[in-house]
Specification:
Elements (H helix, E strand, L loop, with lengths): L1 H4 L6 H5 L1 H15 L48 H8 L37 E10 L3 H7 L7 E5 L5 H10 L3 E8 L6 H4 L10 H12 L7 E6 L7 H14 L2 E4 L8 H8 L3 E3 L2 E2 L6 H18 L1 E6 L3 H10 L8 E3 L2 H21 L1
Parallel strand pairs: 1-2, 1-8, 1-9, 2-3, 3-4, 4-5, 5-6, 7-8
Bound molecules: zinc ion.
């Protein structure tokens, strides 16, 4: 074998005998670095291309894997590994993997719906809406009002200090938001109106400019009601200038009814703005006995027409009277509801009546 492995110029086996020849060849191989000659004979157990399965030493009881069929990367039969895992774990419910349902899209003129406090009107009760307006100016009592049972409907003046945090806190407390828009009243109340009121002496362009400024002072409100306004709301021509901006903004109108001569609901109708009206003022006279009487009046109105809307203010006696009265509502067959819920109900009723009129 050595004679075949080496060139046959010199045969050491012939020269020195077989054992000496083997020793000479191994010595030469060592210095030439031919490691293959030094491999123990056991290495010949392996051959190139042979698969070697090695049992993990630390887990001796695990059986060797059987043949694994790798799925094709395309085609209908391919199921990704994570899908297999999902099927294997029922607690990993499909809901976890589904996208959340898309937010409902409202027509632009009903943008208010996205800011409405989610509410299911209880059909076995009469409904009362308590609007507190002039909100935000007296910060202390405005914040105190947020602690009353929800959902109140809170109407903020645009010139209130820290209007954004105040309105955000109100909404986060579960109350509904409105914008309280100053309009000129009969008599000299200029100081009570606040900045940029709607005055009957203003041009239509200026009225629109001021209305825009109020409408854009904060966001998240469902409706507008007039602050004062006994002069302005009796002027139909001027209301017709302003009402279309409410429709553009996608909010509805609550007529505070500071005058019996108000034209606001008619103007709202003409402009395609849904509207409601106030039935009871709670605290025109700022004393506890009067406010309690007005709350009793509110109950009677709700009993008669199914719902009633009151307007009050964030003031000590009003807050005290409401603190006593609101927890008793359920026992009287009444429920406090946000104004948007009544608006929604009234719109549904109007559409139903319109359909019936068409069908008949
Ligand atoms: Zn007001």
């Amino acid at each position: 074998m050595l004679s075949r492995a080496l060139p046959v110029l010199f045969d050491p086996a012939q020269a020195f005998g077989t054992r000496a020849a083997r020793l000479l060849v191994l010595t030469l191989a060592f210095f030439l670095g031919l490691d293959a000659f030094w491999q123990p004979t056991a290495s010949s157990d392996y051959s190139v291309g042979q698969e070697v399965l090695v049992r993990p030493v630390e887990t001796p009881s695990v059986p060797l894997a059987s043949t694994v069929t790798v799925p094709p990367l395309t085609g209908a039969s391919f199921v990704p590994v994570w899908e297999q895992e999902r099927a294997a774990y029922p607690w990993d419910a499909p809901a976890l993997f589904q996208a959340s349902p898309p937010a409902p899209v409202y027509p632009p003129e009903e943008r208010w719906r996205q800011f409405a406090v989610p509410f299911e009107l209880p059909r076995d009760k009469k409904w009362v809406v308590v609007v507190l307006d002039d909100m935000g100016v007296d910060v202390v009592w405005s914040l105190r009002a947020l602690q009353l049972p929800k959902p109140l409907t809170l109407s903020y003046l645009s010139h209130a200090r820290r209007l954004q945090p105040q309105t955000k806190a109100a909404r986060a407390s579960g109350h509904e938001l409105m914008l309280h828009l100053p309009m000129e009243s009969i008599g000299a109340h200029a100081g009570l109106l606040g900045p940029n009121p709607l005055l009957v002496s203003l041009s239509p362009v200026e009225l629109q400019r001021r209305t825009h400024a109020h409408l854009n002072s904060f966001d998240g409100y469902v409706a507008v009601n007039n602050h004062m306004g006994s002069l302005f709301t009796s002027n139909r021509a001027l209301l017709d200038v302003v009402m279309p901006l409410f429709r553009q903004k996608g909010v509805f109108f609550l007529d505070s009814r500071t005058t019996a001569a108000t034209q606001a609901e008619a103007a709202a109708d003409a402009a395609g703005v849904p509207s409601l009206r106030r039935q009871v003022f709670l605290d025109d006279t700022d004393d506890l006995a009067t406010i309690r009487n007005q709350l009793a009046q509110l109950e009677r109105t709700a009993a008669r027409q199914g719902y009633a809307i009151a307007i009050g203010h964030p003031r000590p006696y009003t807050v005290q009277a409401l603190t006593e009265w609101l927890p008793l509502l359920a026992s009287k067959g009444l429920a406090l509801v946000p104004i948007s819920a009544v608006m929604d109900w009234q719109l549904a009723r109007q559409r139903l009546l319109a359909r019936q009129a068409q069908g008949g």
